Amino acid sequence: MCDSPFLNISEFISLRRLWQENWRGFAEKEEYEKKYLMADLF
Question: Which superkingdom heads the taxonomic lineage of this protein's source (predicted)?
Fold first, then answer.
């Protein structure tokens, strides 16, 4: 049980890093699509 908190912390950090990378990619994709759609409309 003593190892559990450390394992959870390392898992949390890695998951958070992964989530941030995915969110950044998603945000960039959304911005790209917004610009592309705007260019397509006009």
Answer: Bacteria
pLDDT digit string (tens) for 24-42? 888 888 888 888 777 776 5
The rounded distance, in Å, linking the Cα atoms of 11 and 29 is: 27
In the chain, the amino acid numbered 16 is R
Q: Whole-model pTM above 0.90?
A: no
Amino acid letter for position 41? L
DSSP secondary structure, 1-42, as one string = --SHHHHHHHHHHHHHHHHHHHHHHHHHHHHHHHHHHHHHH-
